[in-house]
């Protein structure tokens, strides 16, 4: 690594007054360091670094500002750096100051940094607090997220995973699920947003986390929100279903064209299925999913899916849908044609495994466990 | 016009109420037209409102109030007149103008003039982009006009200003629902269309396979000239449209050739009886049936009323088809199937409906008929 003297010199170059070419080389070097673990360790020992980087984001040279942001992204990707970053009193305010600016060309980088920082609960809380202190509301974040071309120079796709991370906090879930507003409804169409996997995944993660709260399920599945079609559409394929089966589906899933494509990211597919499984936690939810012929969609999906971890989730869902509920009028489900391979697999599940499933379900529903968080992003 | 003091009431008169009603202050409703002779006071008050030198903004306000009064009475037409007059003042107060447009929009809405209502909502928005009532009205109009995407747009704008407005949330949910139903209907229609198209194609393929030739009606100017393949392309278009029923209008029954069970084609067939200028229409003649099968039923026990000579018994009947192009007549053995006959090298199915001429063997009409054209007898 660098000697202390060289390190000192390097730090001294990181201020606005330095000659541009030297400044540029210094920031480039720092960026390189931030890209690997050892480099990060080293930078961690330099508390003035964050301060310098924050200041340099106001530098007139775009290249320098870019390097600063990329460095910050890399640093934020390292969990051990979070304390240091957040401790700097200007860091979070600086990020939030610019995020709502429709002309700010680095808005996407800000979103990425915030996503990285909000991954774990502790820093997530700090991020949320800082956001509020800057006078920025969740309403505003959702507003700019849902406004097409809000920022001509930034796609703001990373607001998706940011929102998803923020839903670890009950306040965020409360806002999104506010019955007197139209928030979750505005996010729903993005479950099929083709142009960005990031945005799509972020929204679906958000919905998944929101579904941990059972109390909202009936409202979510009801007419005011109607979440079901938006969860099913990415899983539905072009396979032709009989007229009878079609008429039993939610309106948006009826008569899908032959060029209908399924969600291409397997992790997102799994998330969608997990969300549906969450919705089967209540009797009401199970009832609704059964009545709306979700089984037909999942049957075709099961035939098509190749990834084992997604298939497993699918089978869990199907089990919940055709599970043995001794309700009157539900006996007809036994007459449902279950494809042979699924039937075999289901039969193979011993009682012990069924028990494990129940336990897993409980864990899944525990808000402190297994919450989806957006992945860490690195830049080189 | 000068202001005139109200008439002094003679309280001893029996029709007090009527007298009261003549005094502007006590009027319950305004008369439709204010006749200055009958209601001098009202006319005077009205003139204060209308022909005056007050600032434009004030005048506009008064007209707005006047319009609102008419609106309350559900006299929407009059309300519109007042609001229009208010707008014509072209005062500089954006608020008043926005309200005038919004209120006029509401009046139009209640009269069912959706487009005018929408135009007014748009205009109101221009004057005051944050006028919530205008946004709600705009959304409502779009919903009525079935412009669901636009309705959603209006709702979104409104909710930005007032995120908890119940009416907007309601409208948004309704517009969203209708939009998705409309999309489903479009998809369903597409699926139906595809199904029908493939059925048509299967039918045409079956017809072609049998070597049956179709002749379509003369091509319309825009289309290309008749295709080489025995008219199948044109036929497809015709089957798609309603050209198949381009027979004599009395036979526009909507019956069409179709592919039935076990791959059997059923044709709508016409039997022509030129002797008596009569026709019979068989809506679904199986290609594997023979003419005799039908004729023996149609001319078996009971003969048709137009057969005045009682000679059209099936045993006496002969079947022919006409080759229009060559103006000739070909005899058909009644025991042959329809299919076999259609496969005759000079048989062309016209307008999707095979037709055949039925004559009585050896009749004078028959002889005359033969003499007029080249006849190929069996």
Automatic annotation (TrEMBL), chain A:
What is the protein name for this chain?
Protein HGH1 homolog
Which segments constitute the Protein HGH1 N-terminal domain?
99-270
Pfam families reported for this sequence: DUF383, DUF384
Q: Which domain of life is it from?
A: Eukaryota
Family that this chain belongs to: Belongs to the HGH1 family.
Signal peptide range in chain numbering: none
Q: Which Gene3D superfamilies match?
A: Leucine-rich Repeat Variant
Gene name, per UniProt, is HGH1
Protein HGH1 C-terminal domain mapped to chain residues: 275-328
UniProt organism field: Esox lucius
Automatic annotation (TrEMBL), chain B:
- Name a GO CC annotation attached to this entry: cytosol
**What keywords appear on the UniProt entry?**
Repeat, TPR repeat
UniProt keyword Repeat, yes or no? yes
**Region (Disordered), start-end ranges:** 214-233
GO MF terms here are: Hsp70 protein binding; Hsp90 protein binding
Q: Signal sequence span per UniProt?
A: none
InterPro entries linked = Csn1/TTC4_wheel (IPR044059), TPR-like_helical_dom_sf (IPR011990), TPR_rpt (IPR019734)
Tell me a GO biological process for this protein: protein folding
| A Pfam match | Wheel
**Which protein family is named in the record?**
Belongs to the TTC4 family.
- Entry-linked PANTHER family: TETRATRICOPEPTIDE REPEAT PROTEIN 4 (PTHR46035:SF1)
Put simply, this protein is called Cns1/TTC4 wheel domain-containing protein
Q: Which organism is it from?
A: Esox lucius
Give the encoding gene's name: TTC4
């Amino acid at each position: 690594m660098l000697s202390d003297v060289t390190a000192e010199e390097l730090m001294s170059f990181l201020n606005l007054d330095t000659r541009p070419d030297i400044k540029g080389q210094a920031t480039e070097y720092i960026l390189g360091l931030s890209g690997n673990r050892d480099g990060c360790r080293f930078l961690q020992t330099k508390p003035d670094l964050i301060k310098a980087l924050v200041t340099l984001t106001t530098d007139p040279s775009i290249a320098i500002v870019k390097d600063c942001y990329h460095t910050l992204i890399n640093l934020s990707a390292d969990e051990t750096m979070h304390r240091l970053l957040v401790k700097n009193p200007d860091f979070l305010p600086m990020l939030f100051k610019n995020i709502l600016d429709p002309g700010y060309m680095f808005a996407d980088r800000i979103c990425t940094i915030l996503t990285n920082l909000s991954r774990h609960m502790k820093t997530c809380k700090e991020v949320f607090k800082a956001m509020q202190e800057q006078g920025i509301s969740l309403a505003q974040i959702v507003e700019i997220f849902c406004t097409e071309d809000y920022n001509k120079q930034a796609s703001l796709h990373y607001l998706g995973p940011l929102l998803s991370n923020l839903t670890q906090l009950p306040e965020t879930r409360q806002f999104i699920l506010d019955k007197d507003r139209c928030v979750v409804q505005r996010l729903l169409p993005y479950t099929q947003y083709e142009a960005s996997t990031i945005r799509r995944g972020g929204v679906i993660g958000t919905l998944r986390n929101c579904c941990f709260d059972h109390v909202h399920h009936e409202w979510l599945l009801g007419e005011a929100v109607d979440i079901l079609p938006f969860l099913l559409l990415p899983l539905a394929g072009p396979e032709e279903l009989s007229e009878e089966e079609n008429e039993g589906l939610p309106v948006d899933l009826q008569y899908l064209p032959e060029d209908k494509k399924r969600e291409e990211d397997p992790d997102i597919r799994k998330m969608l299925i997990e969300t549906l499984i969450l919705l089967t936690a209540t009797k009401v939810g199970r009832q609704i999913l059964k009545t709306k012929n979700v089984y037909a969609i999942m049957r075709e999906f099961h035939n098509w899916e190749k990834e084992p971890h997604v298939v497993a989730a699918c089978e869990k869902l199907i089990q919940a849908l055709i599970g043995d509920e001794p309700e009157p009028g539900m006996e007809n489900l036994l007459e449902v044609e279950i494809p042979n391979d699924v039937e075999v697999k289901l039969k193979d599940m011993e009682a012990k495994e069924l028990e494990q499933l129940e336990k897993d379900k409980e864990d899944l529903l525990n808000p402190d466990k297994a919450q989806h968080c957006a992945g860490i992003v690195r830049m080189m | 016009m000068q202001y005139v003091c109200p008439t002094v009431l003679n309280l001893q008169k029996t029709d007090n109420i009527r007298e009261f009603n003549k005094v502007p202050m006590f009027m319950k409703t305004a008369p439709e037209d204010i006749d200055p002779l009958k209601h001098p006071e009202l006319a005077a008050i009205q003139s204060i409102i209308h022909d005056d030198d007050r600032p434009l903004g004030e005048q506009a306000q008064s007209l707005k109030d006047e319009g609102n009064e008419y609106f309350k009475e559900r006299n929407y037409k009059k309300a519109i007149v007042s609001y229009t007059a208010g707008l014509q003042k072209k005062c500089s107060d954006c608020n008043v103008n926005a309200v005038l447009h919004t209120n006029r929009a509401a009046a139009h809405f209640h009269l069912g003039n959706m487009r005018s209502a929408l135009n007014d909502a748009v205009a109101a928005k221009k004057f005051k982009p944050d006028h919530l009532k205008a946004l709600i009205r705009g959304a409502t109009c779009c919903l009525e006009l079935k412009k669901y995407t636009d309705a959603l747009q209006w709702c979104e704008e409104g909710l930005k200003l007032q995120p908890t407005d119940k009416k907007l949330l309601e409208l948004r949910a309704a517009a969203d629902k209708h939009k998705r139903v409309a999309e489903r209907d479009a998809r369903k229609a597409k699926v139906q269309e595809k199904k029908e198209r493939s059925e048509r194609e299967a039918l045409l393929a079956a017809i072609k396979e049998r070597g049956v030739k179709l002749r379509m009606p003369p091509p319309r100017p825009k289309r290309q000239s008749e295709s080489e393949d025995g008219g199948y392309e044109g036929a497809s278009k015709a089957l798609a449209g309603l050209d198949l029923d381009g027979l004599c209008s009395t036979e526009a029954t909507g019956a069409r050739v179709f592919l039935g069970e076990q791959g059997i084609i059923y044709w709508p067939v016409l039997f022509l009886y030129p002797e008596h200028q009569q026709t019979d229409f068989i809506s679904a003649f199986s290609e594997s049936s023979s003419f005799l099968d039908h004729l023996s039923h149609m001319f078996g026990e009971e003969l048709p009323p137009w057969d005045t000579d009682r000679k059209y018994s099936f045993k006496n009947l002969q079947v022919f088809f006409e080759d229009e192009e060559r103006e000739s007549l070909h005899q058909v053995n009644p025991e042959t199937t329809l299919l076999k006959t259609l496969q005759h090298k000079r048989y062309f199915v016209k307008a999707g409906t095979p037709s055949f001429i039925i004559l009585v063997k050896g009749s004078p009409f028959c002889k005359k008929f033969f003499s007029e054209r080249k006849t190929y007898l069996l």
